[in-house]
Amino acid sequence: MRSVVVGIFAVAAAGVGIVVGCGGDNPTANAKLPDGVRSQAIEHEQCSEGGHTVQQVDVNNDGKPDIKRVYDGNHEICRISDLNHDGKPDMFEYYDNAGNLRRREADYDDNGIVNSIEYYENGKIARAELDTTNQGKIDTWDSFDASGKRTKRERDTNGDGRVDQWWTYDGDKITIASDKNGDGKPEPETTVTLGASGSPAPSAPIDAGALPPPFAAPVASSDPNPPTPSTSAQDAGPPKRGAAKR
Fold first, then answer.
1. Angle at 115 between CA 239 and CA 105, to 5 degrees
2. pLDDT per position as a tens digit, 2-28
3. 11 burial class (0-12, 13-18, 19+ CB within 10 angstroms)?
């Protein structure tokens, strides 16, 4: 099992402190943050094999387990997967008492630090936290509707813990607005509208600083019945590689 992830927790201009957390043990997890400020801490929830029944699956027949399913009685409580068969876990999934997926964590670059945390309600994704720049802290927060469709994205593009970019989704269009002067509000001239292909609409003013990172297919799930991923422009790509350290 990988070590507890150390995250950064920024609170406005008061300074930056270090938070070490694992799952629900973090006393600041439910703290009220000032408007526009988001927790940047990456919290890894433990999937403990101790005292539980563990079912191991060797997908590629190399003699090493690629999936470990952890059971409490007959109920699967969590799953650890090695999707790229390098001997290290890169996905963790957690299930509620009804057997529905409730949380999924992914390490896209195999450096031992989670880059993506998805939260599910009744088996459907409700929100997500992403480290898109691989700096070891959350910089993007996504919200989804009851059907699992992304409706809103907030981003911290400069790493100060304050949201300075807002994405809204309307059918096949995505509107991105940015705060360039640091007043916590988007400036109209920064607004960019993207079409279904993810490219800026021809008539929209283009602010290069507001454009999103390249889109890419999300990481595969080890769930035998995963939610069907969307392939539209609203999907977030995996974080950039090579910056965060173990």
1. 130
2. 333 333 223 232 333 323 333 344 433
3. middle
Helix, strand, coil tally for the chain in percent (to 5) = 5, 35, 65
How many CA atoms within 13 Å lie on the side-chain side of 200? 17
Residue found under tokens 């994205």: 153
H/E element holding 118?
strand 116-121
How far is it, in rounded angstroms, from Cα 143 to Cα 154?
9
pTM above 0.70, yes or no: no
pLDDT digits (tens, 9 = 90+) for 133-154: 988 999 999 999 999 999 999 9
Q: How far apart are CA 39 and CA 203, in angstroms?
A: 36
- What is the C-alpha to C-alpha distance for residues 180 and 26, in angstroms, rounded to an integer? 33
Q: Which residue has the higher pLDDT, 156 or 232?
A: 156
CA 6 to the chain's CA centroid: 16
Residue type at 57 in one-letter notation:
V
